[in-house]
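Example record

One chain of 521 residues, shown exactly as stored in the release files.
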Amino acid sequence: MASLFPAREFGLSRRTLLRASAAGLLTAPALAACSTNGGPALVRERPRLTHGVAVGDPRTDGALIWARADRPATLIVETAATESFRDARRFEGALLTPATDGTGRIRVNGLPAGQQVHYRVTLEAEDGATSEPVTGVFRTAPVAPADITLLWSGDVAGQGYGSNPDLGGMKIFSAMAARDPHLFLHSGDAIYADGPLAESVTLPDGRIWRNTVSEAKSAVAQTLDQFRGNYAYNLTDANYLRFNAAVAQLVQWDDHETVNNWYPGGQIAEGKGYTERSMDTLATRSWQAFHEWMPVEPKEAADGRLYRKISYGPLLDVFVLDMRTYKDANGANRGPAGTIFGAAQTRWLIEGLRDSRATWKIIANDLPLGLAVKDGSTAFEGPANGDPGAPSGRETEIAAVLRAIKSDRVRNVVWLTADVHYTAAHHYSPARAAVGDFDEFWEFVSGPLNAGAFGPNELDGTFGPEAVFVHAPPVQNTSPLDGAYQHFGEVTIDGRSSELTVNLCDATGNVLFTRRLDPAH
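Predicted structure tokens for this chain:
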């Protein structure tokens, strides 16, 4: 049967298709022959998995498996304890259709806890033709204390830096995969919908950065198909594809999934290349594409709630926040109140931390707590407002959470973030703060994964932060050619001692900074 997803389905130019095919990332649909009566063979075109597979939000008994088809087909997932797939279990998902851009996912369950799971994904068309399989692995969450490795970072293909064929693509994903993590926390800016790519970029020192290109990445994303095409573009990178297949992800969104510094009710200024200037309209399209193309449970509307808790055994709970959907307008961020979480999410976080029985509670905040992140010369987009005095504006919600952590006697809370395109370790202490009703804590910053490197940002003194370690480039918007300033972070938890270790790494996996934390009881 003819494909219902035409060539534009990938958002790829002919040049990119040729390059991707040469790299073995995209395989042409094969033809399968069958005959039931000895007569002329019936030739059937096989469906194809177009952009690899991905795993998300694992539990003790399974995980979410994501894939995309090039034509209507049923998603089939098999799981087994070994790569031979002996005694495999079979899970049949929904029919993948153009309504979701051919994407879909299925939660596999009933699997043993704390085990490596091999999975195999195939597609089955209505005429019975099946795709070539794509395989991967993930680990179910343990029920007893066990060693855990979690990586985190964000900011992919930003500032005009896409997948560079001269470098072998986004090699940082291969460096992360080599560490064999159980989990990857994608801290936002998974795409740069507002960042078109050119075939080449001339750097200030005269060097040339080259990009693979696509139609969807040739302009700022405004239509649903353009947002979809941004995700499709990233998944033409072989390093990213291999990483997705082998590491379970916890994904959150930030601003560049929609447009730089977006907030509900915002309008894009003239002269930015947008004909659709309503941030709400763009965010609605972005929300749909995000939930279609990322390994998360599908939500029908932005109020369907993206924040959630992922429990990964008795040693770890991860609280994945959404600091975009509910925030107030960017401005001076002063006054007696402000919104960064919203009332419902603030209450959920306070109660979830209070009720958590896990040894360690990681809070995944897609905007840093104490770094002044500006929107223009006078407005702020994050919690901090540059005033080291008492909490005001959005800081009031941060203060409420920190106050509750102390009063509820919640121990072993660590915050992980990205967004600012450098890596740092921040220690917060009431002894240095404008307020003293919270316990000291750590926030670790990482990024970017494949984008311009910036920083460092100014620290706001309200909650008493100290920059214990900072690794930022000497020149703003340093390209990924200088891989020393591309970063990811690593958290390991020892299954016997419960000690938590944070490593801040560069693009090659070289450890730049280490901090070990003993659990408090």
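Notes: The CA atoms of residues 46 and 129 lie 5 Å apart.
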